[in-house]
Amino acid sequence: MNQNGTTYGVITDIQRFSLHDGPGIRTSVFFKGCNLNCAWCHNPETISFAPEVIVDPEKCIGCGKCDEGCYSGARREVGRRFSAEELMTEILQDKDYYGKTGGVTLTGGEVTCQPEFAYEILKQCQSAGIGRAIETMSRSSAKARASEKR
Ligand code: SF4
Fold first, then answer.
1. 3 state DSSP class of 86
2. Which of 23, 103, 105, 112 has the fewest Cβ atoms surrounding its Cβ within 10 A?
3. What residue's CA is closest to ligand 1, atom 3?
4. Nearest CA to ligand 1 atom 2
5. In sequence order, what are the residues at sequence separation of 6 or more whose Cβ sits closer than 8 angstroms to the Cβ of residue 69?
6. To test ligand 1's pocket by mutation, which of 58, 65, 67, 78 has the most ligand atoms within 8 angstroms of CB?
7. pLDDT at position 3, please?
8. What's the confidence (pLDDT) of residue 139?
9. What is the pLDDT of residues 121-145, one digit of tens each?
10. Ligand 1 pocket test: which of 53, 71, 75, 77 has the largest number of ligand atoms within 8 Å of its C-beta?
């Protein structure tokens, strides 16, 4: 999403020193939002597009004090809006660890459902000499991509 010349996206997590999302040492950035709803999704918190609060029923002790903060760790906010500049600040902190083979992997969620944000991050990584990869099923719908403009 573009607002006043700044590109924004919604991210659920930034995983540093990742070894399983491409070659070398990587920073994996989890985009929020996917136009599919696969039963086997291993990141179901990335399916909806908007930031949300989720409760883990196995950790919830039913104390009813959600407004005061959850001491059991059951309730957590998932998804934060980042500008491209904010996300690049996070990514550049890890640049020294990438070496010749590592870099950044955009994953999710479905990366191509936030095409403007993904493009901006990939472009800025390229300018900074950072290796780039995306994990995608390449079937984001026009409707899902339109949600980026909300
Ligand atoms: S505060 Fe946490 S443990 Fe208590 S009811 Fe809310 S979600 Fe459950």
1. helix
2. 23
3. 60
4. 70
5. none
6. 65
7. 76
8. 75
9. 999 999 999 999 999 988 776 666 6
10. 75
Give the list of residues 6+ apart from residue 118 with CB closer than 8 angstroms, or none.
9, 31, 106, 111, 112, 134
What topology is assigned to 2-50+79-149 in CATH? TIM Barrel (3.20.20)
- Ligand 1 neighbours (beta carbon < 6 A): 55, 60-66, 70, 72, 74-75
**Tokens describing residue 17:** 């020193």
- CA dihedral for 26, 125, 113, 85, sign (positive or negative): positive
Give the pLDDT of residue 4.
72
**DSSP at 59:** T
Strands annotated E in the chain: 2-3, 6-18, 26-31, 52-55, 75-78, 80-83, 103-107, 131-134
Model confidence at 36: pLDDT above 60 = yes
- What residue has token string 């999710």? 108
